[in-house]
Design brief:
By secondary structure, this protein is of the alpha/beta class. It contains 10 helices and 12 strands. It has one domain: Alpha-Beta Barrel (TIM Barrel), CATH 3.20.20.70.
Length: 259
C-alpha cells in the first residue's frame, strides 16, 4: 500500500496565498514560494497550488508563481486553475508542475482529461471536483470557484473522469471548506466506491483525527490549508499526531540528522 500523503494547499490570487471559507472573504496568507519551502522543510509530501481567480478571469494559472515555487521546493507540485487547453497544461508542466488539476474546463469539455492523459500520462492528470450537498441528498459538481452548479452528480462525474484518464481526484467538499468541521466522510466513501483511482480529501480538516478518518473513508492523501497557514499546527506536528493514531506516514527527519 502507498503511504498516505499530507499535502498543504496554496490557494493563490495575484501572486499571494489567500484563504477564506467556501471560497469567500479571502484574506492574505503569505508568499507562495516561502510557504511552500517551509512546508517542505516540515515534511510535506507534496504541494498543491490552486489559482482561485484564473477561471473567473478567463486566464491560465500564473506561470511566474509556479516557477518560483518550483525553484523553492523539490517535492511534487500539482497546479490547477484556468487549465482549459492542452497548451495550458503544457505550459504549467514546463514551468515546473509535476501534475495539472482540471476542474471547470473538464466539465465543459470532458475530452480535455483524455487529451492531457494521452500526451503526458495519467499520472499528470488530476480531476478536481468541488462537491456541494444537494437538499434532496447526494452531491452536485460546482464549477467556477464554487459559483456555478453544473447539474452533474459527483459520483457519476468522478467515474467518468477516471474512465477518461484522470489519475487522481482532488475532492473538495464546498460545504466544509475552511470550516474546520472535518472532511465529508460520506462524500469520500461515495466517490471511493464510484471511481477506482486515488482520492485527495479536501475541505474542512482541522485535526489529525479528521485526517485519519478521511484515510479510513477511502482517501489516499489529505489536503489542508488554514491549519498550516494560520500556524494552528505544523506539518511535522500533524504527522507525529497521525503516527500516534496508527497512520503510517513519512515522518520528517530532525534537523541535523542523517537521512
Amino acid at each position: 500500500m502507498l503511504i498516505p500523503r499530507v499535502i498543504p494547499c496554496l490557494d493563490v490570487r495575484a501572486g499571494r496565498i489567500v484563504k477564506g471559507v467556501r471560497f469567500q472573504n479571502l484574506r492574505d496568507a503569505g508568499d507562495p514560494a516561502e510557504r511552500a519551502a517551509a512546508y517542505e522543510n516540515e515534511g510535506a509530501d507534496e504541494i498543491v497550488i490552486l489559482d482561485v481567480s484564473a477561471t473567473t478571469e478567463e486566464r491560465a494559472a500564473s506561470i511566474d508563481t509556479v516557477a518560483r515555487v518550483r525553484e523553492a521546493i523539490g517535492i511534487p507540485l500539482t497546479v490547477g486553475g484556468g487549465v482549459r487547453t492542452i497548451d495550458d497544461a503544457s505550459r504549467l508542466l514546463d514551468a515546473g508542475a509535476d501534475r495539472v488539476s482540471v476542474n471547470s474546463a473538464g466539465v465543459n469539455r470532458p475530452e480535455l482529461l483524455a487529451e492531457i492523459a494521452g500526451r503526458f500520462g495519467v499520472q499528470c492528470c488530476v480531476l478536481a471536483v468541488d462537491a456541494s450537498r444537494s437538499d434532496g441528498g447526494g452531491w452536485r459538481v460546482l464549477t467556477r470557484s464554487g459559483s456555478t452548479d453544473s447539474g452533474l452528480g459527483v459520483e457519476d462525474w468522478a467515474a467518468r473522469g477516471a474512465a477518461l484518464g484522470a489519475g487522481e481526484i482532488l475532492l473538495t467538499s464546498w460545504n466544509r471548506d475552511g470550516t474546520g468541521a472535518g472532511y465529508d466522510l460520506d462524500l469520500l466513501r461515495a466517490v471511493a466506491k464510484a471511481a477506482p483511482i486515488p482520492i485527495i480529501a479536501s475541505g474542512g480538516a482541522s485535526t489529525a483525527a479528521h485526517m485519519r478518518d478521511a484515510l479510513d473513508a477511502g482517501a489516499s492523501a489529505v489536503l489542508a490549508a488554514s491549519i498550516f497557514h494560520d500556524r494552528v499546527t505544523t506539518v511535522a506536528d500533524l504527522k507525529r499526531e497521525l503516527s500516534s493514531l496508527g497512520v503510517s506516514v513519512r515522518l520528517p527527519i530532525p534537523t541535523g540528522a542523517t537521512p
